[in-house]
Structures are given as structure tokens and as C-alpha cells.
């Protein structure tokens, strides 16, 4: 049994879920990760590279991969060592100018074969800022109805206050559980 | 296992869920009968999900519940149908084995009432199993599955929360006053079953162990447990033939008891079992039985755990886990959304309860230890000792089990002891003599300890160098090496470390692990190790923070890019090495480790990889690396000196390419290497050939750099090249020719008489040497020489080479490889001399001196015991002709009409540099053009023929060359019927020539007069070939062209033209062993599938010509397939009007007396068919026909000739023939073959043998 099969086995035995945190730069991905990790969120600079954070939630171990806003980091989501269970797509709800960019990026990412089965959670972040779009508007702007059979959900949240984050994680964990940890 | 991991396509859901459901539905609806047919399909689908069985989870309820329900109904029935149970169990067990029985059993019904029927059923099955008759229903299928499934179910049923005595109906009849038995009878029954199954091989033993574990750990089972222990004790010491099964079985059952039992319940029996367990580990039974050893270790581990209190070691290192629910208090109604800014201190800091557990370092928890007061039983030390020994076990499963056990046991030990365990694990690596298994086991244990936090951070410093070493672990063992499993396990350790420790703890170790991981990721021989190292690196990067350039590297070195060794070595590694942090580690690894690897191909790749690293640090390679490699070229170990020689050459070349010069001392040192190697006699003996090719490459590189040589070195190198040119190995000759190519250009720069003597004259003289190695090598050498040396004696060179391309007169001398070398050299010389810008006078030389021999080489169909070796010559000739035509096309455009003779070379005009080719008279431009067009046409036609011939490789080559010629710019003139050819060739992919898809298009060229003969000859060869699919395709292609209705209705004239062309080919190849059979078969095909028969004797001379040729082929022929093919054609001819009919029949009747019984019989059969078709024909009346048929069927034509001769005589009259007064020859024994004919047909006899075998003997 080599490492690659150990990784698979550990993932099942330890009830691990691999969540990929993606989105345009400045959407607030790292802030969300720090917020749920209980870290200081006052100073956050653009993420270079990526961080894996492990958290316990409802009896599962979430491995959250915070991939910077860089576009070209294909190898993170094209990770053949482990299956990606869910995509957490973070949107800056207040940045209406870049919503079209955001839509294009999201849809091109979802074309990736390796992500075919992954659940999609969209965090409409920065709801605490005045003028932020609501989830319905963002749903429309990102053309989420075109997802077809994929399991998806959009949740409004604020990384700063922490509002909405728990809802989002609860949904995504339940959704993954219903697919892969059905009987545990 | 890794292989399976890769090749199985990942799915995201169960595609066949509906099909599976319906298969199960059928099975249930039929009550398990007549559904055996669906089972293979069911099994097949489920196998697909072996690797991703969790995908089945959503469907398990639907799969298992109905099947289990049916099983239950059967169990409860008065007369259970065993067939039904077998079938249902096969389905259930398939699901269980794919998804795991623990998951499946949850869907089984769980009622106390089921217990007894299931036991009864098992007893029945067991009885049936022992009875040899087995009953009518039993076919032996599904029996063991039924036992497994029922035992599994029973293991669930025995968990019922009532006293088992109360469900035992046999006890209910007892009067209240009777003493209850200690063990209820039903339990006794179960245990009897279990004991017998524990001694049997297969899955049933595992189920029995599980059942025992579940049953005997019930609190009401103490007496039964005592009984069982007594049995188990005996079983563990058994040494009969059944020991091999019963010992693992008993150990498994005991391990299950200790695993499942509550501690206070099993603690008392632990001291009882322990001696037996300890004894088992050391027993000879375990030593020879992997499974017994593994289960013994498992038992030891479980007993050991029982001795220890079940507490998590407080001293363990914890990285700390964050709980989402803790950090994210649900926003209350007051809504933090409203509050735009929240004091980060309030949210960010950990709660007092310690939601964010900071790493609890050992120092911090010392107080806890003091209060723990753990008493450690003496046995524990022995347990740990045994597990540590088992880490070195020779079998992987045992090592795994030991590593797991060590992790579990250590987790319950007090700090001091636990840390001692870690120390002992590290000692596993210490001994210099430790085997690879110890390293592997040690790595597994380290990873296990790290994952459980039992390897304290203080130990990391000592651990890291060991892991870095394990990542490169590779130990030579005989002709290969071992260590891939160690390297993979070391990557596992790194991966586990990355997850287990916080960044600040790991910071010190990362610096040494990262280069080691990347070295393995780039340069490991095995793909799984490269990927494992890359995965570990990625995990470390994500969890341990920043490595230098980590992101770029992770992006470049991923699962895919590392999948092929070449790409990893030549693309990924140089990229990683261009970051200075990793450059040294990678370069050193190649220089000191990989360049001396046991595998030749890997050393060769390493040399290239080394060259690819050169630009990352020119100074290092120009000094340290070269200094390191030069002495290694003379090393006493073959692998070392071979690798060093290759590496040195490539490094120098790469340095040169990047403008980095070697110091003069080093240049001198390198120049001295080859003479030194020769002086040390390293060419001789074992590995001499390997050294030769490496030295050739080194000489080539030396020459490419034009390193200064002393006169002695100059001579030595040249001699060395010549010697290697004469070497029998083709690869060495090739390397030597490449070396000569470079050497002559760097060091033989003047056309001196001496240089000529040492090269051209010598090589030309060797072209007809008796030693074929010299012929081949020297021909290749001529192709490698520069213009400077070739020019003066060009004519001699060309004529000699041209002569060497032809099949040698003396059969003893024939050597296809020599001819191939000569063909290639011929083209190379022409390209070398005329390839330059001026290239004057090339055309006449090519047309007059080169092309004729190359075209002749295209007809080289010689064979030897390796088969069609002429094909190598043809292949080479096609390439040569194509290259020459392209060259001619280039020169013919925009050229003035020049004197076609060799002009004295433009420079110097010395006698030495002028050619020996006499000057021609001036040829007019028009003539030149016509000449070139003529050659182009010849070559194209020849290529078309090769494109439809028998050998796929040649068809593909011909297709490729045709494409090149059609596409060459400026366009070639003189390609006949260019548009038709383009239609046939350009639309096709090159590969389709080999796969026959292009054949129909090419066959269309038959219509073109220019290509007709070529296509027909090629197709005929294919039709008569050995390959059935080729024959089929070629036949279909030809028939289709000839039967397609053309718009101008010229079909019959085409047919006539084709037939007459075919006969012309035949006349050309009359009695040729290669073509006779194919041509006969082609004619047979044309007569049977095209309207060739419409060419009647009166209006056309075709039938008569065919008849003559067939008769000529048959005469004295000893080739049975050919005779049979001739019979077929004659039979067709016999259907034509007279005079051909009578002549054909006469010939057939002659064949009835052929020496070969098989031919006689075949002829008779064919005649019979012919006569049958004559019915209703006016030329013969029915009575006659009937008597003919009778005669033909009743005579034993393969019998004695005297009988046959009489029978045959009576055939003449009814057929309207008169028996010619042929002088009757005495029949000969077949063995007394006509020697003269046999010699002429030397190959044919072999050919016919093959033909016969291939076609199953006609």
C-alpha cells in the first residue's frame, strides 16, 4: 500500500472532507478561513500560495484549501492525490464591477473534469458592507441556474462578523455527507 | 495497488444503479431461481466500484434489504430452498466484499426470532458440505457464499439484548426444576460451527472469528468463553496438516475477542492467553505462514492493549484542532450583520475553554504524568519488543500490523515508556546492516506515531536526517535494487509529519526534507514514488507555510508532469533546479547516485538530465562536476564508469552549448580519458559493449567541442572509432558512426593523402569484406564522412556503395543489414556532397550512379530464417530515394543549364579536392528536366507499390514518403496522374496506411495506367499474404474497383487491361516462389468475384494466356497451396467455352494423378462442384453427369494411385475429352522428391508450410 492509497484510506477513515476555497482576489477567502479558525483578521494581505487548514465540524474533519486569488494555480484543483469534495466560491458582493469576471471564472473552473462531482457553495461575502448585492442578485449575475445537476447553494455571509458562515458550512457538510459518508 | 488506483476511471456516482436494481429485483421476484444468469453481470458491474465503494452507499438499502428479506423468509421456511439461498448469498456476498461486510450487515434484519433458524440452516449447509452426494439441488455454487453470509448475519443476531438461553427453544421444554445447562445448546451449536470454520481457508474463517468475538464477549457467555479458550489453546499448538488453517483461525478469533470485549471482562483472561500468544509469535508455524504471523502480531497487540488502561496519553503532542461550531457562534437575533466592525480581540482570541488547543508540549504536561500513576504490566514490555521485531518482518502485511499496533500501544503508555518506544523505532534505522524491510517498517511506525502525536517534537531533529535518507533508499541486490517501498513509506512519513506538527515545530526539519522530497519527486525511478513525494511536498507546503518557490514548484511538479520518467527528468527537474535552493541537491543526486544506477536506460537518461541541469550552474558543472566524473570513467565498477562516461560527454556538450569553456587542464584531462579507458582494457570482458557505446558518445562529444588532442590521442581516438565501427553490435556501430561524423569534421580537416588513406580508402576497401560487421560498419562510416574527404574519390565511393546495395552473388555472403547500411550511406554521401548551397551536378550523379541501385534495392525481397529481411533494405531505399528527390527538386529550380560533370571544386582547384567523376557533356535544360521527371515517376510508382504491399511498417513508410513528395515545395514535376495520387494519399493519415484503411483509395489507382502494374503487383502480394485480414482487405479493395460501375462504361476494358497487366506481371515472375501463389490466388479472386469470365476465348486471348501460365506453374510443382490455387483457377477456366474448357479439364484430370494425395482429393472436390454446375448444360446429359458425380464421390482420391488411375480413365469420355497418350510415369514416393525442383523452390517449401498452417490447411 503506497502513499497514494493511504491518502485515500485516511480520508475515508478519518472522515475527512476536502474543501477548496476559490474566488477572485480580494473576495475575502483568507478572511473567512481566519475567521473560522479563530485567528486575528485585522491584518490580511493578498494570499500568495495556499494554506491548508484543518477544522472539526459535526464530527467531520474539514481540510480547507485556501488557494490565493491567482488564476493559474491549476494544480490545486487538479489535485489527483485526493478528490475535491466541495468548492467554496467566495464572491465580493460589494464589487459589482467584477461580477462578470467572477461569473466567467466560476464557469470555466466548473468545466474541469476533476471537479465534476463536487458540491458548490457560493459565499456572497461582505454582506455587512452597505450597497452589497443580495444573494438573489448574485445568483442571477453568476448564472447559477445553469448549473444543471450539480448540488449548489448560495449563502450570504460576512467574514468580518461571521454571519452566515455556519449556515454555509452546515449545508456543504451535509451535502457532502449525503454523497460520500452516507452510512457513517 | 497503486496501479489499480491509477487506471480505474474515477466516477462520481453509480451509473448502473438502475440495472443493478433490476437485477436484484429479478432475483428476488424469481425467489432466487433462474437468476444465476444475471449474476455475472451484477458481479462485473460491482467490480468497477471496488476502488470507490462508498459510491454504492446511497443504493445499499435498495440492494441489500430485499435480498436479506428473502434470505430471512427462506430461513424461516419449513423447507428452505438451498438453491435460492445459494443464489441470494452470491449476490449479497458480492456486495459485501466490495463495500465491506461491516457496512452491509447493518441492512440485515435483526430479530431474536431469526437466531435459531439461521443456526439450523448453517447446520444443514455444513452437513451438506460434508456429505459427498451433496443433494440434487447443490451444484457447489454459492455454498461458501451462503455460509459466509449466514455467519455474518449470525454475528449480528448474537448481539440481541436478551439472555441467549431465553431464545433457545430446546430449553423451554425443560421443567423448572431441571438444572439449566451451563451453555445453551444453541450456543454450543454455533461454537461447533465456528470451530470447524476457523479451521477452513477463505473468507468463512474471518466470519467465524467475527462471530466468536461477538458471541463470547457477551456477559452471559463466561462458561462458553472458558470452553473456547481451552479449544483455542489446543488449536494454537496443533501441528497436523490442518495447522496451517486452524492456527490463523484461532489467533483471529482470539484477537476478535480481545478487540470487541470490554476491558474488565477480558482482563482476567489476558494472562491466560498471553503465553500462548507470545509462544505463537515465536513458533515455527508462524515463521512459515505469513497469515499466522500477521494474526499472531495482531493478537499480541490486542492482548497488550488489554494490559494497559484505555486512556489517551496526556503527554502526546497535539497540534490542536479548531472546531467550527466553537469559533462561529451562531449569530444571534441582535445580528452581528448590523454591527459593521467587531472588535477582533473578541472574535479572534481563543475561548478560555481552549477551543484552539495550542500544541501541548511535553514539558507543559509533565504534571499530568506524575499524577497518572500508570502501572504497566511486565508483559507490555514484551509486547512492545515483539512489535518492534515484527516491524522488520519480511512480509509487508506483518509490518503494517506491527506499526499499527505500536501506535495503539504507545498511545496508552506513560510518557517515559512511550518516548522509549519512539527511540527504539528510530533505532530500527540505526544498524548499518538493517534490511530494507526494517527501514520500511520503521517508516510506517514513525508515520503512525506521528499521526497519533506520539513522536514528540524533540525527537524530530534526530528523525529528519533518517527520513531524508529513507527518501533516497536504494540498495543494490543482484541485477536490480530494492527500496521503492521504503522511499514511498518515507514520503508517507513526510506527509504525516506535515499534517501532525505545527509549522514552528517543523521549521527546523523542513530545510532538509524539502530538497530530499523534490529529489525523489523528480528523479525517482518509480512513478509511485515520484508522485508520493510530490503529494507529500504539496501537503507540507499547504500546512507548513512557505518553502522557497513552493508554489511554482507544486504547479510544475504535479501528478501528471511526473508521470513519465523522461518528462520528470528533462523538464520538471531542470525547472526545479533553476531555483538555487534546490540546484545543488538535484545535481549532487544525479552525479553521485543516479549516474551509477543499476539500470542502463536510467543511466543514459541521467546523463541527459545532467546536461539539462548544466545551465542552472555553469561554474559548478565546469569544475566540480567534471572533476568528479573524469576519474569515475576508470572506476572498477561497470555501472559507475559507464554512467560517468556518458555523463561527462553530455555535460561537456551542454557546457559548450552554453558558452562555458573548460579550463585547459580539464580539456587535457578529458582528452586523455578515452585512451586511458582503452589502456585499462575496459573494452574487454563483461560490460565491454556497454563501455564501447559510452566511449563512442564521449568521443563524439569530445570532437564536437574540438578539444585539443595530442598526436597520440588523435591516433588513439581514430583507431578506437574504427574498432567500434567493426563491432558486431548495431547500436555500437551507430554510435561509432556518429562519433566519426563529429571526429572527421573536427580533426580531419584537410584532404591529405594520409587522411584519405585512413578513411575513405580504408572504408571502401572494407565494403566487400568477408566479415559482415566490417561491411556494415564501414558503409555507415562512409555515410558519416564530410564532403572534404568524399569528394576526391566520389565516383569510387558511390560505385562501391551502389555495388554493396545489391544482393550478393554468393548466398553465403548475403547480409541484409550490410545492404541497409549501404543504401543509407549512399543517400547520406549524396546529401553531404551535394546538399550544400551550390550542389552542382547533383542530378546526373543521382540519376546515373545512385538511383538505379536504389530502385533495384526496392525489389530486394530476399528472405532468410528471420523472414523478409529484404524489407529492411526496401524501407531504407524508399527513404533514401525520397530524400534524394527532394534534394534534386530543390536544385532543379532556378538553375542554369550547367555542365553536368563535376566541376573542379570552386575552392583551391587542387587535384586532391577535385572529383574523380568524369565531366559529362553539357546536357540541355530540357533533357535535364525530362531526366528528373522520369526518375520522379519511377520512384513514385515504386512507392505506390510498396504502399499496398504486405508489411504494415513498409506501407506506412511508403505512405509517409509519398506524402512528402506530393507536398514538397517547389512542387515536383513528373508525378504521374498527380491528382489521382493526391486523392489517394493526401486525404489519409499516415497511420491508415499501416492499418489498411487507406487501401481502398490506393486500389483506385489501378485505373491509372501508370500505376496499374505497381498496384496490381502490390495487391497481389497482399492478397496472397499470410495475414488473413490483409488478404481480406486487399481482395475487397481490388474487387470493388473492378466491379464499380464507371460512368463511361469502360469497365470491361479496364478488366481486360487489368487482366493483361496481371499476366504481364506473371510472365515477369513466372515460377517465382514469392509471387506464383499470390498471382494464382488473385486470378481465382478475379474469376470468382469479378466478371473476368466474360472475356471469352474467341474475343480475347486472356483465357488462353492464363491457361498457359497456370499449366506452367503446375508443372513439377511441389507446393501444395500453389497447386490448390491452380486447381481453383483451372476450375474457373473449365467453365469457359472450348478450347479453353477442354484444355483446362485436361489439366485438372492430370492433377487428379498428382503425387500429393491432398491435391488429388482437392481436385476431385472441385471437379465435383464444376460438374454439379453443369446440370442442364446441353453438352452433357444428366445420366452422364450422374455417373460422373458418383465416380467423383465414390473414389478414394487420396488412396493408391493404381486405383485412381483407373477411375480417372473413366472420367474422360463423359467430359467429352480424350485421354492423351501421356507416358505414364511411375509414381514416386513423396519422400523421393525431385531434387532439382526442390532446390529451385527452396523458400517455397518453407513458404507452403507456413501457408498451410496459417490457413488451417486447405
From TrEMBL, chain A:
Key words of the record:
GTP-binding, Lipoprotein, Magnesium, Metal-binding, Myristate, Nucleotide-binding
* Single annotated GO MF: GTPase activity
The family database entries (InterPro entries) matched by this protein are listed as: Arl2 (IPR045873), ARL2/3 (IPR044612), P-loop_NTPase (IPR027417), Small_GTP-bd (IPR005225), Small_GTPase_ARF/SAR (IPR006689)
PROSITE patterns registered for this protein in UniProt: ARF (PS51417)
Q: Which residues bind GTP?
A: 23-30, 69, 125-128
* Record-listed Mg(2+) binding positions: 30, 47
Q: Name one Pfam family in it.
A: Arf
Which SUPFAM superfamilies does its entry note?
Answer: P-loop containing nucleoside triphosphate hydrolases
The similarity annotation says: Belongs to the small GTPase superfamily. Arf family.
Name the record gives this protein: ADP-ribosylation factor-like protein 2
From TrEMBL, chain B:
Tubulin-folding cofactor D ARM repeats domain mapped to chain residues? 292-551
InterPro entries noted in UniProt:
ARM-like (IPR011989), ARM-type_fold (IPR016024), ARM_TBCD_2nd (IPR058033), TBCD (IPR033162), TBCD_C (IPR022577)
Where is composition skewed (Polar residues) in this entry?
A: 897-916
Instruction: Tell whether DNA-binding is among the UniProt keywords.
Output: no
The source's domain of life comes to Eukaryota
Region annotated Disordered, chain positions: 339-362, 895-918
Q: Name one GO biological process term.
A: tubulin complex assembly
Q: Which residues form the Tubulin-folding cofactor D C-terminal domain?
A: 938-1122
* Membrane spanning residue stretches: none
**Record keywords, A-Z:** Chaperone
GO molecular function terms listed in the Swiss-Prot or TrEMBL record:
beta-tubulin binding; GTPase activator activity
| SUPFAM superfamilies assigned to the protein according to its UniProt record, in alphabetical order | ARM repeat
Keyword Translocase appears in the UniProt entry: no
Protein name stated in the entry: Tubulin-specific chaperone D
Amino acid at each position: 500500500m503506497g502513499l497514494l492509497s493511504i491518502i485515500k484510506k485516511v480520508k475515508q477513515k478519518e472522515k475527512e472532507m476536502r474543501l477548496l476555497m476559490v474566488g477572485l482576489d480580494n473576495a475575502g477567502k483568507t478572511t473567512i478561513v481566519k475567521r473560522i479558525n479563530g485567528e486575528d483578521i485585522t491584518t490580511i494581505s493578498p494570499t500568495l500560495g495556499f494554506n491548508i487548514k484543518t477544522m472539526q465540524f459535526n464530527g467531520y474533519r474539514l481540510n480547507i484549501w485556501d488557494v490565493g486569488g491567482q488564476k493559474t494555480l491549476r494544480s490545486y484543483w487538479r489535485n489527483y492525490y485526493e478528490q475535491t469534495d466541495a468548492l467554496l466560491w467566495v464572491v465580493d458582493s460589494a464589487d459589482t464591477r467584477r461580477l462578470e469576471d467572477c461569473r466567467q471564472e466560476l464557469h470555466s473552473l466548473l468545466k474541469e473534469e476533476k471537479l465534476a462531482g463536487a458540491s458548490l457553495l457560493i459565499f456572497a461575502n461582505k454582506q455587512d458592507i452597505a450597497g452589497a448585492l443580495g444573494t438573489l442578485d448574485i445568483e442571477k449575475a453568476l448564472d447559477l441556474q445553469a448549473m444543471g445537476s450539480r448540488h449548489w447553494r448560495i449563502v450570504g455571509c460576512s467574514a468580518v462578523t461571521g454571519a452566515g458562515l455556519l449556515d454555509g458550512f452546515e449545508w456543504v457538510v451535509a451535502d457532502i455527507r449525503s454523497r460520500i459518508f452516507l452510512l457513517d | 495497488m497503486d496501479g489499480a488506483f491509477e487506471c480505474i476511471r474515477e466516477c462520481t456516482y453509480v451509473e448502473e444503479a438502475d440495472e443493478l436494481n433490476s437485477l436484484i429485483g429479478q432475483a428476488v421476484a424469481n425467489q432466487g431461481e433462474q437468476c444465476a444468469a444475471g449474476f455475472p453481470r451484477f458481479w462485473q458491474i460491482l467490480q468497477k466500484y471496488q476502488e470507490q465503494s462508498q459510491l454504492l452507499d446511497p443504493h445499499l438499502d435498495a440492494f441489500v434489504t430485499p435480498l436479506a428479506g428473502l434470505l430471512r423468509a427462506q430461513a424461516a421456511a419449513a423447507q428452505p430452498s438451498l438453491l435460492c439461498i445459494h443464489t441470494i448469498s452470491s449476490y449479497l456476498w458480492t456486495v459485501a466484499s466490495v463495500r465491506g461486510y461491516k457496512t452491509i450487515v447493518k441492512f440485515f434484519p435483526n430479530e431474536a426470532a431469526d437466531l435459531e433458524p439461521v443456526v439450523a440452516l448453517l447446520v444443514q449447509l455444513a452437513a451438506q458440505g460434508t456429505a459427498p452426494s451433496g443433494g440434487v439441488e447443490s451444484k457447489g455454487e454459492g455454498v461458501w457464499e451462503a455460509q459466509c453470509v449466514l455467519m455474518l448475519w449470525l454475528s449480528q443476531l448474537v448481539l440481541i439484548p436478551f439472555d441467549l438461553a431465553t431464545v433457545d427453544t430446546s430449553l423451554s421444554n425443560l421443567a423448572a426444576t431441571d438444572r439449566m445447562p451451563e451453555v445453551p445448546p444453541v450456543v454450543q451449536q454455533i461454537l461447533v460451527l465456528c470451530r470447524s470454520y476457523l479451521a477452513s481457508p477463505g473468507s468463512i474463517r474471518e466470519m467465524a472469528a467475527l462471530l466468536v468475538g461477538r458471541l463470547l464477549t457477551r456477559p452471559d457467555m463466561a462458561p462458553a468463553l472458558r470452553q473456547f479458550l481451552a479449544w483455542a489453546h489446543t488449536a494454537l499448538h496443533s501441528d497436523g496438516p490442518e495447522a496451517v488453517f486452524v492456527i490463523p483461525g484461532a489467533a483471529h478469533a482470539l484477537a476478535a475477542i480481545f478487540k470487541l470485549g470490554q476491558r474488565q471482562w477480558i482482563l482476567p483472561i489476558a494472562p491466560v492467553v498471553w503465553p500462548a500468544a507470545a509462544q505463537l509469535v515465536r513458533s515455527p508455524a508462524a515463521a512459515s505462514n505469513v497469515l499466522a504471523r500477521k494474526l499472531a502480531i495482531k493478537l499480541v497487540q490486542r492482548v497488550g492493549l488489554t494490559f494497559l488502561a484505555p486512556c489517551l496519553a496526556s503527554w502526546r503532542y497535539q497540534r490542536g484542532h479548531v472546531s467550527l461550531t466553537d469559533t462561529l457562534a451562531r449569530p444571534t437575533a441582535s445580528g452581528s450583520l448590523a454591527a459593521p466592525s467587531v472588535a477582533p480581540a473578541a472574535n479572534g482570541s481563543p475561548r478560555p475553554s481552549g477551543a484552539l488547543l495550542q500544541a501541548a508540549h511535553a514539558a507543559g504536561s509533565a504534571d499530568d504524568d506524575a499524577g497518572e500513576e500508570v502501572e504497566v504490566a511486565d508483559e507490555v514490555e514484551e509486547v512492545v519488543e515483539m512489535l518492534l521485531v515484527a516491524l522488520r518482518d519480511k512480509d509487508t502485511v506483518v509490518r503494517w500490523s506491527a506499526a499499527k499496533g505500536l501506535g495503539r500501544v504507545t498511545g496508552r503508555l506513560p510518557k517515559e515508556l512511550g518516548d522509549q518506544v519512539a527511540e527504539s523505532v528510530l533505532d530500527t534505522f540505526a544498524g548499518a546492516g538493517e534490511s530494507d524491510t526494517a527501514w520500511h517498517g520503521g517508516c510506517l511506525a514513525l508515520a503512525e506515531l506521528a499521526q497519533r502525536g506520539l513522536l514528540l517534537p524533540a525527537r524530530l531533529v534526530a528523525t529528519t536526517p533518517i527520513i531524508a535518507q529513507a527518501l533516497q533508499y536504494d540498495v543494490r541486490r543482484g541485477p536490480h535494487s530494492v527500496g521503492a517501498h521504503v522511499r514511498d513509506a518515507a514520503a508517507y512519513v513526510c506527509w504525516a509529519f506535515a499534517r501532525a506538527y505545527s509549522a514552528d515545530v517543523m521549521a527546523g526539519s523542513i530545510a532538509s526534507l524539502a530538497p530530499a522530497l523534490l529529489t525523489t519527486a523528480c528523479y525517482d525511478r518509480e512513478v509511485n514514488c515520484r508522485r508520493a513525494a510530490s503529494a507529500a511536498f504539496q501537503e507540507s507546503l499547504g500546512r507548513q507555510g512557505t518553502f522557497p518557490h513552493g508554489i511554482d514548484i507544486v504547479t510544475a511538479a504535479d501528478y501528471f508532469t511526473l508521470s513519465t520518467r523522461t518528462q520528470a527528468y528533462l523538464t520538471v527537474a531542470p525547472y526545479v533546479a533553476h531555483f538555487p535552493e534546490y540546484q545543488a541537491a538535484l545535481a549532487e543526486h544525479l552525479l553521485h547516485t543516479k549516474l551509477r544506477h543499476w539500470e542502463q536506460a536510467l543511466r543514459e537518461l541521467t546523463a541527459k538530465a545532467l546536461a539539462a541541469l548544466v545551465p542552472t550552474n555553469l561554474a559548478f558543472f565546469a569544475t566540480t562536476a567534471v572533476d568528479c566524473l573524469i576519474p569515475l570513467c576508470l572506476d572498477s565498477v561497470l555501472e559507475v564508469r559507464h554512467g560517468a562516461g556518458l555523463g561527462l560527454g553530455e555535460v561537456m556538450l551542454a557546457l559548450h552549448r552554453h558558452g562555458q569553456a573548460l579550463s585547459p587542464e580539464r580539456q587535457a584531462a578529458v582528452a586523455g580519458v578515452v585512451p586511458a579507458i582503452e589502456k585499462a582494457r575496459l573494452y574487454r570482458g563483461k560490460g565491454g559493449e556497454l563501455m564501447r557505446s559510452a566511449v563512442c558518445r564521449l568521443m563524439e562529444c569530445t570532437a564536437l567541442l574540438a578539444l585539443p588532442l595530442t598526436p597520440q590521442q588523435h591516433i588513439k581516438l581514430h583507431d578506437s572509432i574504427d574498432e567500434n565501427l567493426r563491432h558486431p553490435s548495431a547500436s555500437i556501430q551507430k554510435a561509432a558512426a556518429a562519433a566519426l561524423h563529429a571526429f572527421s569534421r573536427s580533426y580531419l580537416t584537410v584532404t591529405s593523402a594520409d587522411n584519405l588513406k585512413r578513411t575513405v580508402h580504408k572504408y571502401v576497401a572494407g565494403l566487400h569484406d568477408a566479415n559482415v560487421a566490417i561491411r556494415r560498419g564501414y558503409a555507415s562510416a562512409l555515410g558519416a564522412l564530410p564532403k572534404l574527404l568524399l569528394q576526391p574519390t566520389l565516383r569510387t565511393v558511390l560505385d562501391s556503395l551502389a555495388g554493396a546495395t545489391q544482393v550478393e552473388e554468393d548466398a553465403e555472403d548475403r547480409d541484409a543489414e550490410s545492404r541497409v547500411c549501404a543504401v543509407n550511406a549512399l543517400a547520406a554521401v549524396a546529401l553531404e556532397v551535394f546538399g550544400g548551397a551550390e550542389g552542382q551536378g547533383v542530378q546526373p550523379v543521382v540519376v546515373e550512379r545512385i538511383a538505379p541501385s536504389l530502385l533495384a534495392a526496392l525489389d530486394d525481397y530476399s528472405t532468410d530464417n528471420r523472414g523478409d529481411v529484404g524489407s529492411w533494405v526496401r524501407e531504407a531505399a524508399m527513404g533514401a530515394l525520397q530524400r534524394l528527390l527532394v534534394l534534386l527538386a530543390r536544385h532543379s529550380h532556378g538553375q542554369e543549364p550547367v555542365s553536368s560533370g563535376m566541376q573542379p571544386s570552386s575552392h583551391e582547384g587542387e587535384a586532391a579536392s577535385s572529383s574523380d567523376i568524369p565531366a559529362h557533356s553539357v546536357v540541355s535544360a530540357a533533357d535535364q528536366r525530362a531526366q528528373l521527371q522520369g526518375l520522379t515517376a519511377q520512384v513514385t510508382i515504386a512507392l505506390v507499390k510498396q504502399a499496398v504491399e504486405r508489411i504494415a511498417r513498409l506501407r506506412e513508410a511508403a505512405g509517409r514518403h509519398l506524402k512528402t513528395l506530393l507536398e514538397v515545395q517547389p512542387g515536383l514535376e513528373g508525378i504521374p496522374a498527380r491528382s489521382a495520387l493526391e486523392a489517394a494519399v493526401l486525404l489519409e493519415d499516415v497511420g491508415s496506411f499501416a492499418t489498411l484503411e487507406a487501401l481502398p483509395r490506393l486500389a483506385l489507382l489501378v485505373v491509372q495506367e501508370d500505376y496499374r502494374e505497381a498496384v496490381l503487383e502490390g495487391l497481389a502480394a497482399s492478397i496472397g499474404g499470410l495475414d488473413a485480414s490483409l488478404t481480406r482487405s486487399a481482395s475487397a479493395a481490388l474487387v470493388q474497383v473492378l466491379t464499380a460501375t464507371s460512368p463511361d462504361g469502360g469497365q470491361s476494358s479496364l478488366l481486360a487491361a487489368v487482366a493483361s497487366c496481371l499476366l504481364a506481371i506473371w510472365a515477369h515472375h513466372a515460377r517465382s516462389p514469392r509471387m506464383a501463389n499470390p498471382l494464382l490466388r488473385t486470378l481465382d479472386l478475379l474469376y470468382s468475384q469479378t466478371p473476368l469470365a466474360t472475356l471469352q476465348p474467341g474475343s480475347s486471348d486472356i483465357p488462353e494466356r492464363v491457361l498457359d501460365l497456370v499449366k506452367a506453374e503446375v508443372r513439377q510443382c511441389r507446393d501444395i497451396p500453389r497447386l490448390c490455387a491452380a486447381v481453383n483457377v483451372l476450375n474457373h477456366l473449365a467453365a469457359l467455352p472450348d478450347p479453353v474448357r477442354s484444355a483446362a479439364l485436361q489439366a485438372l484430370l492430370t492433377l487428379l494423378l498428382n503425387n500429393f494425395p491432398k491435391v488429388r482429393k482437392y481436385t476431385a472436390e472441385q471437379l465435383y462442384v464444376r460438374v454439379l454446375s453443369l446440370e442442364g448444360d446441353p453438352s452433357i446429359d444428366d445420366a452422364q453427369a450422374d455417373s460422373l458425380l458418383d465416380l467423383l464421390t465414390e473414389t478414394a482420391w487420396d488412396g493408391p494411385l493404381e486405383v485412381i488411375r483407373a477411375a480417372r480413365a473413366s472420367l474422360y469420355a463423359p467430359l467429352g475429352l480424350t485421354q492423351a497418350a501421356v507416358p505414364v510415369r511411375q509414381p514416386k514416393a513423396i519422400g523421393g522428391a525431385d531434387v532439382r525442383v526442390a532446390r529451385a523452390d527452396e523458400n517455397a517449401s518453407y513458404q507452403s508450410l507456413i501457408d498451410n498452417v496459417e490457413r488451417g490447411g486447405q
